[in-house]
Amino acid sequence: MPGPTPDGPTREAVRARLDRVTDPELDRSIVELEYVDDIEIDAGSVTVHLTLPTAWCSPAFAWMMAVDARTEVEELPAVERARIYLREHMHEIEINRGVNAGRSFAEAFPDAEDTVDAVRAELDRKARTARQYDAVEALLEAGLDPETIVSLRPQDLERTDGDDQLSIYLADRAVAVSAPAEPIERYLEKARETGLADADADPLFLTPEGEPIDPEAFELVHRRGRLAQVNMSSQGGICDGLRESRERRLEASD
Amino acid sequence: MYDHNGEEIFVIDGHVHLWDATEGNITHEGGEEFIQCFYDYHTTFTPEDRQWSIEEYRKYGPDRMVEDLFENAAADMAIFQPTYLTDFYGDGFNTTEQNAELATEYPERFVLNGTFDPRDGEEGLEYLEELHDTYDIQGVKLYTAEWRGESKGWRLDDEDAFEFLEKCEELGIENIHAHKGPTIRPLNRDAFDVGDVDDAASSFPDLNFVVEHVGLPRLDDFCWIAAQEPNVYGGLAVAAPFAQNRPAKFSEILSELLWWLGEDRVLFGSDYAIWNPDWLVEAVLEAELTQEDRMEYGVEWDLETKRKVMGENAAELYDIDIDEKKRQFREDEISERFGLEDHYASDAPAAADD
Q: Which InterPro entries does this one have (chain B) (predicted)?
């Protein structure tokens, strides 16, 4: 018999952890996208049910979301064990068993040609490129010129606690410019996840390929960021549409 | 022709099929999954009152197809893009031979494309030659994610594929349409990666590579390749129906395409029967770019651009003389059948709405 279980987490705490999980193709939270159907809490044991927009949503993407959801929820001190169940997915058995047993994607899908890491790296690259667009827009808005923007390094940024603005120090720290923190930090989070803009003296912004930006190529790189956003939101439009028609069909058959 | 505020727009639907997904033709569960997936795309992006039942969707036949395309002059011409899928469907899903039934009956109205699959080797090269000899094809539609036995796909930049592209060059088959679009269950999504178009396009500068579905969900990769390869074009099938229920998104996608590729390298296609030109043409032509997008991208969806995207660009690729076609259509069989002689005779087109 297991010993007495501690009090479980609150539903809000679980949702907050799940909110950190993104649909890797859309770079949007699975909570915001309404993929989370149901959260069951039984003391330290949490069960999350997810439904994706289509039954044939890429197994690699579905796998990433399920694994990330499990990892995030298990980060909560009050959670001993999180189980994730996908519903209505063509590979739900393999994914649910694999993720909840802690297997690797390759073990669950021996036929898969690409590793889930390679797929994740590619989607992270696109998410970083798209987030960079918003960060750079914020800096342009704050009055910085392209040449200055491409020369920035993480060490030039400073955040004061409790403030929603960042200070950007220019000209050997002689001048400070203020810009909204949110888009820049959101960008940095993704850049660092992929091992970029990590050291204080690294370039802050990069081309989609991960190279420093030549000032002459600034406009083109910025356009590519916008393009990455349009691509993601277009795919989001397809996913939304498919989910809506799927829901209509499921309702009609009830 | 579409009457756009009194101006004629000649419409070449660059992407149509005549398929057979009846249960009797399905030989592998993949065939059923495939048509059901198509049907989901159909219902998701079709106005509710224009949706078909799954039964009519499985096989609609040549008569209905001619009516849908031409009865109201929604389209003036159409280009058949075959999709064989012979591992899923006994007689194939939508083969050149199946398409030829209509295309040879109305050769003035249809362009018939062939296909090749490098996994067929020597036999495949002979088949390509045979298609060229029989139908004088000027283009091929390629489906890199098609299953063939153990193989789940192939790449355009494979050595074997290059041999087929060389054959196309030799035969004068200049237009290479590659399906690079949304994953269709049960096919593997990675086989629709657009990266292989890059190498093929730069290795064969005399061929035109039309990336169907503009690479969605890889619009970014596609536009970046197209910006560097002048012989890469974008086919609007799948993006087009956004005009109907996601107009702001359509505006953004179109603005990106016009910015990266310019107005000469984007081609309209309905993907019939996934979507039907009898409502889609109007939805696309009446769509507007948002004020923000026009400012940001500096592009216009104006009459001149519409004429190019809806017909002139395809006419250029397939050596179609639009003025000659208009004269021909004053008295061809289709115009007689649907009473469209006047439509093509006068300067101002007759009202063609249903």
A: Amidohydro-rel (IPR006680), Metal_Hydrolase (IPR032466)
The more confidently predicted of residues A58 and A224 is A224
Sheet holding A36-42, edge to edge: A36-42, A45-51, A81-87
Residue A106 to residues A68, A84, A109, A113, Cα–Cα distance (Å): 16, 18, 5, 9
Contacts A58 to B, Cβ<8 Å: 183, 189
**Cis bond leading into B217, ω under 30°?**
yes
Give chain B positions within 8 Å (CB) of A242: 40-41, 44
Identify the closest residue of chain B to A233 by CA–CA distance: B249
What fold does the segment set A117-231 form as a domain? hpI Integrase; Chain A (1.10.443)
8 Å CB contact of B190 and A224: no
Instruction: Could you please state the CATH topology (level 3) that the domain comprising A11-113 is classified under.
Output: GMP Synthetase; Chain A, domain 3 (3.30.300)
- What domains appear along chain B, each with residue ranges and CATH number? 2-345 (3.20.20.140)
Going by pLDDT thresholds of 50, 70 and 90, the confidence category of residue A247 is: confident
Pick from A22, A225, A209: nearest CA to A135: A225
How much is the ipTM here? 0.90
Q: For chain B, which residues lie within 8 Å of any Cβ of chain A, measuring from their own Cβ? A: 33, 37, 40-41, 43-45, 152, 182-183, 185-186, 188-190, 216-220, 223-224, 239, 242, 245-246, 249, 252-253, 256, 259-260
Average pLDDT, chain B: 94
